[in-house]
Design a protein that fits this description.
It contains 13 helices and 36 strands. The protein is extended, with a radius of gyration of 37 Å. A hairpin with a 3-residue loop joins strand 20 and strand 21 (about 465-475). The protein has a 17-stranded antiparallel sheet that branches. Strands 2-5-4 form a three-stranded mixed sheet. Helix 1 packs antiparallel against helix 3 (about 55-70) and helix 4 (about 105-115) crosses helix 5. The protein has about 750 residues and is an alpha+beta fold. It has six domains: about 1-90, membrane protein fhac (Ubiquitin-like (UB roll), Roll); about 95-170, membrane protein fhac (Ubiquitin-like (UB roll)), CATH 3.10.20; about 175-260, Ubiquitin-like (UB roll) (Roll), CATH 3.10.20; about 265-340, Roll (Ubiquitin-like (UB roll)), CATH 3.10.20; about 350-420, Ubiquitin-like (UB roll); about 495-755, membrane protein fhac: a member of the omp85/tpsb transporter family (Porin), CATH 2.40.160.
Length: about 750
């Protein structure tokens, strides 16, 4: 570019030599040589106007200004009887770009990369930019292991000083990791060390994980993983001396060699605490996970520092500095640590700022906060607040930051950034079944109606088996203290005659109810509800004798006033992407005097979430239910427990487990036991998507009519996909029963849509 500018400058002085020594007044300006560029564009950049005096300095300035536009590759100035003649040679414009042979990347993404490098249609062509764009394409392919890629670029002139650019790409074969070797390891074998790395030789899943393709970023992460592996096992002097990455001449195989020094294994000899101790030393020592006599583990050291920092943060010391200073005894191979504590200045919260909530009102988020403005900073309260906002289920993500207030040493702000997710759905459907005929269904639900945090739903189903008309409303903050109020109105008809697996009967139920939820602790809610309902029961000639006996005892029409009482505790870290915490729910239902039924039901449900790694979570689920009648009456058969299906034991047909009559029709039972073990992990290559999750599971459970006999339990194992979709939660599972019997009804593939799970 500089060379061309000098050439143009020499040309200018040569063309200007006849008058350069004498300036003149510009009477007119004429532009020659333009094909696409408008003359007005040239005039707008030209620093010389009619009536100006043109001298050598202004001529030089004019040439520089026109060159700076990038539109021209040559500029000359001439004079003719007081007329300034501007002669330009335009650079060609890019008319079209074509890419051939690209398979690894979508063409749109490659075109976007070219655009960022300065090459796109309608832009001015530059050879230097084209070279840079070609290098950018190669870089993208190399990042995918395509080291043998060849890119041939051709330019074709077109009319009106335009140009077409064509990229011919020969991607070549992807280079694969042939071997990962270690030099200097004595305590751990190569096989063990390779097992903790992401980069590895090709295996059965390499086509999906791409872990057999070299990446500098992946190698850096693997080296840090290797360092942590040794440091967590006491090798304080571990060091990575060097790494060599080589590729074979045919650009197909990659060899990685990691040179390490293991050093000696150290044990902890002593733990000391020093500095400004605002907390009792005994309390601080309880937060230190490292213990004298144990093998040193960096993970415990890091966690100890965090625990002390968080504890001081609860008292307002948001910027506490904890420094663990080691003292090594090389002869005894021991290390002593002194935790120096500098609490810093105590700070309080100036303001809570909320962004990203386009639909949800600020008050809906603020009322979940346990950290108040104007109060001392509390790490615990801030974490609880973030979890409570996340558990609203209104947001895909909730991020909380606590930046210091500028020019203030004792104040911080809380910046809450949320990413809203769809909280409502409108669904309409129509279908035909040989058992149910034409089915019309629809539902409207909104968990965050008008951004108030209130819940409303309206459901309609016109199937031959199930007919439902129901409306529900809940205000989670009926009072400022968080007491919730809800109403339900419903009409539910059930006709089991089209079903082949359930004893025949028919019910028509109309009811209404009111609910109150009372928070009794930070994560505990007690709910009480009362409903009134009327059920008309119909039996048929082929109905089970149990159903006929019930009609004989109670009549076809029964009134019932079910009183419900429940206690729920939710200590999950997230409602969508749970990695740790527990949930408990104790639920009881009893028919109060004044109705025709006398029964009670009680159930308990608990889930445990244990983080194993950053990406693996173990979930344990246990459920128990029990019901019976009182005053000498039995439990109504339509209040029985059922098991089998996506919500209990997968792999078995819905509600098919437990007691059956002589025609193998499921009757349900008065007792229910269900247990699940599930390993949760993200979908590969979609780890940032919190709406998708995979799992491997082991299920077990059934229902009992009389005594509990664990020999009757059914078990299954399989995999499942959970998707919190915009239309509602979806869960798909494939299960294999482990101890099924001939009378069992199996269903390997199951899915559930539109329910919470």
């Amino acid at each position: 570019m500089k060379f061309r500018f000098l050439v143009a400058l020499v040309s200018f002085f040569y063309a200007f030599s006849s008058w350069a020594s004498d300036s003149f007044i510009v009477k007119d300006i004429r532009v020659e040589g333009i094909q696409r560029t408008e003359a007005g564009t040239v005039f707008s950049y030209l620093p010389v106007k009619v009536g100006d005096t043109l001298d050598e300095e202004k001529a030089t300035e004019a040439i520089k200004a026109l060159y700076a536009t990038g539109f021209f590759k040559d500029v000359k100035l001439k004079s003719e009887n007081g007329v300034l003649i501007v002669e330009v040679d335009e650079r060609p414009a890019i008319a079209q770009i074509s890419i051939n042979g690209a398979k690894e990347f979508e063409k749109d993404k490659l075109l976007e990369g070219l655009k960022q490098a300065g090459i796109s249609e309608s832009r001015i062509f530059s050879r230097s930019l084209l070279d840079r764009a070609e290098q950018e394409l190669k870089r993208q392919y190399i990042s995918r292991g395509k080291y043998a890629v060849k890119i041939t670029t051709t330019t074709t002139p077109l009319e009106r000083n335009r140009i077409a650019i064509n990229f011919d790409i020969n991607e070549g074969r992807t280079a694969r990791i042939k071997k990962v070797s270690f030099v200097g390891n004595e305590k751990f074998k190569d096989k063990e060390l390779r097992g903790i790395l992401v980069l590895r030789k090709p295996d059965l899943l390499s086509w999906f994980t791409k872990n057999d393709q070299y990446s500098k970023q992946k190698l850096s992460a693997d080296l840090e993983t290797l360092r942590s592996y040794y440091l967590d096992r006491g090798y304080l002097e571990f060091n990575i001396e060097s790494t060599q990455v080589s590729i074979t001449p045919d650009l197909r195989d990659i060899y990685i060699t990691i040179n390490i020094t293991e050093g000696a294994q150290y044990t902890v000899s002593d733990i000391k605490v020093a500095g400004e101790l605002l907390l009792p030393e005994e309390e601080i020592r309880k937060l230190i996970l490292l213990k004298a006599g144990e093998v040193f583990a960096r993970q415990k050291l890091t966690e100890s520092t965090k625990l002390i920092t968080d504890r001081l943060g609860d008292d307002g010391y948001a910027f506490a500095n904890i420094n663990a200073s080691p003292e090594l005894d090389h002869e005894k191979r021991q290390v002593a640590f002194t935790f120096f504590i500098d609490p810093g200045r105590r700070v309080y919260i100036r303001r809570i700022n909320i962004t990203g909530n386009d639909r949800t009102r600020d008050e809906v988020i603020r009322r979940e906060f346990r950290q108040m403005e104007g109060a001392w900073h509390s790490t615990k309260n801030i974490n609880i607040s973030r979890q409570r906002v996340d558990r609203l289920f209104f947001f895909n993500s909730v991020n909380v930051e606590t930046p210091a207030v500028p020019n203030k040493t004792d104040q911080v702000d809380i910046n809450v950034k949320v990413e809203e997710r769809p909280t409502g759905s409108i669904m309409f459907g129509a279908g035909y079944s040989d058992r149910q005929g034409i089915i019309l269904n629809g539902s409207i639900s909104q968990n965050n109606i008008f951004g108030t945090g209130n819940f409303f739903s309206l459901d309609v189903n016109t199937g031959a088996i199930n007919k439902t008309y129901a409306a529900s409303f809940t205000n989670p903050y009926f009072t400022v203290n968080g007491v919730s109020l809800g109403f339900d109105v419903y009409k539910r008809d059930l006709d089991t005659r089209p079903l082949s697996r359930v004893g025949t009967f028919k019910t028509e139920t109309v009811g209404a109810g009111v609910r109150l939820g009372i928070p009794i602790a930070e994560n505990d809610i007690v709910s009480i509800g009362l409903a009134a309902e009327n059920t008309v029961l119909g039996v048929f000639a082929d109905s089970p004798q149990r159903n006929k006996d019930f009609v004989t005892e109670f009549g076809k029409s029964t009134n019932n006033f079910p009183l419900t009482l429940s206690w729920a505790r939710d200590r999950r870290d997230s409602a969508i992407w749970t990695t740790s915490g527990t949930t408990h729910r104790l639920f009881g239902e009893v028919s109060v005097p004044g109705g025709d039924l006398d029964y009670y039901k009680i159930s308990y449900h608990q889930k445990w979430f244990f983080p194993i790694t950053d990406n693996l979570t173990l979930m344990l689920n246990g459920e128990f239910g029990y019901g019976d009648g009182y005053t000498g009456r039995s439990l109504p058969f339509f209040k029985n427990f059922f098991a089998g299906g996506n919500n209990s034991v997968r792999g078995y047909d819905l509600n098919s487990l437990g007691p059956r009559d002589d025609r193998r029709l499921s009757l349900g039972g008065s007792k229910r036991i269900v247990g699940n073990i599930e390993l949760l992990f993200p979908v590969p290559f979609m780890k940032e998507d919190r709406s998708l999750r995979l799992s491997a599971f082991l299920d077990g459970g059934t229902v009992f009519a009389r005594d509990i006999d664990f020999n009757l339990m059914r078990y299954s194992a399989g995999i499942a996909l959970t998707w919190v979709s915009p239309m509602g939660p979806l869960k798909v599972s494939i299960a294999e029963p482990l101890n099924d019997r001939p009378e069992d009804r199996l269903q390997a593939f199951q899915f559930m849509f539109g329910q919470q799970f």
